[in-house]
Amino acid sequence: MADMPDVRFLTVAEVADIMRVSKMTVYRLVHAGELPAVRFGRSYRVPEAAVTEALQRPIADVG
After folding, report:
1. Does the structure show a pLDDT above 80 at 5?
2. Is residue 22 within a helix (H) or strand (E), and if so which, with residue range?
3. Which of 3, 19, 45, 58 could covalently link to 9 via disulfide, CB atoms 3.0 to 4.6 Å apart?
């Protein structure tokens, strides 16, 4: 078996709790390509590292 890096995947609900947003917001980020995710059946899993990276990105100016 090939060596797999230690990647922890989070559910959409877990990501929403961590980011303090709604699950719908997480789905929107995933569908917009702003948050990478893997689809397992009918559900999505987000790599924990992607959530950490997204939280460290600067916020875009709204204007």
Report:
1. no
2. none
3. 45
